[in-house]
Amino acid sequence: xxxxxxxxxxxxxxxxxxxxxxxxxxxxxxxxxxxxxxxxxxxxxxxxxxxxxxxxxxxxxxxxxxxxxxxxxxxxxxxxxxxxxxxxxxxxxxxxxxxxxxxxxxxxxxxxxxxxxxxxxxxxxxxxxxxxxxxxxxxxxxxxxxxxxxxxxxxxxxxxxxxxxxxxxxxxxxxxxxxxxxxxxxxxxxxxxxxxxxxxxxxxxxxxxxxxxxxxxxxxxxxxxxxxxxxxxxxxxxxxxxxxxxxxxxxxxxxxxxxxxxxxxxxxxxxxxxxxxxxxxxxxxxxxxxxxxxxxxxxxxxxxxxxxxxxxxxxxxxxxxxxxxxxxxxxxxxxxxxxxxxxxxxxxxxxxxxxxxxxxxxxxxxxxxxxxxxxxxxxxxxxxxxxxxxxxxxxxxxxxxxxxxxxxxxxxxxxxxxxxxxxxxxxxxxxxxx
Length: 434
Known about the structure:
With about 425 residues, this protein is α/β, with parallel strands linked by helices. The protein has a domain of about 290 residues: Spore Coat Polysaccharide Biosynthesis Protein SpsA, Chain A. Helices cover about 35% and strands about 20% of the residues. The chain contains 14 helices and 20 strands. The strands form 6 sheets. An 8-stranded mixed beta sheet has the order 2-20-12-15-11-3-6-7, sandwiched between helices. A 3-stranded antiparallel beta sheet has the order 1-13-14, with no helix packed on it. Strands 9-19-16 form a 3-stranded antiparallel beta sheet, with helices on one face. α5 crosses α10. The longest helix is centred in the last third of the chain and has 20 residues. The C terminus is likely disordered.
């Protein structure tokens, strides 16, 4: 009993130090059960980190042009036959030897698509009957397993918000035929939401309002969930990390893997050329001698439009969430603090009198880290330039660019081309096309 009282007192002192007295007032109004749940939640929060993140919202992001330079890449279409064969053999050997795993980041909801539920449960209207995004990925991996005579371990990162629903969906659909002993779900971390005065928001359930900490949280989540240890036990040496919403994502690209192995790097990524200087995508570069991706919102207009001697955009390699890491790289990053980005959002909350406030405009900050911020911990990265029509069919917006309509068209055209290539003996053997 004394230990519990001491813990409560310690937490109250911490709340005072960080000007969170509104939470103290709430604690005093809760019954013992509610109070205990809230105290457990508060005890896990790094208030110093949260206040630092809040202070950073007051500072402007500065990009110093003289520290940025373009980055080298290899164009998959321009590889010599010998070079491509060398990469493919190295990549295929690693996959066949069971040294390869895949992580799918699936913590988001399909809100922007007008879909209720986890994004991976969205059904893309292809070939008349449609396919779920999870189904498309499962087919992708099953075809790779058949091609390379192995079973690739598949790790799916969910969020607190959608974990149970994702698990139920996959179980109900029998993991779309993927061996369920090779499918493991784990949850990403969360961070509190904080208002413009530095106060942590409380929800109507009398708990601190939190949101997922961004796709950059995948590294620490792999470690804290035990997935990293699980990979090591399986003797995994390379891990592909991609999103759930790219309908033509190649999760077992032997050329990308073999390039990373042949070039002796710990990280690799695939890019596609920017559609235009102002496309809303992050682009690869080098900053202070390290690989980096600059978000479209942080790249000065002058740099976005700059071209090289060949007339190509100097910063034109788009990051398409197609990333490869050695197991050592994941372990290294999982112990580091990645840079956090803030997003100004509308979030309801309860005031100190217990009344729910629903704002009409943005009122609070959500903090998230991005997976590409991990690149800065390394001296080099191998980048393979692919083709938009072969590698990038994102399902993000309800209509227009990167919508179900555009993804459906790209998906069907892609597999129609593969079907023709197989017919003449020169293409992939992959994917059930109907």
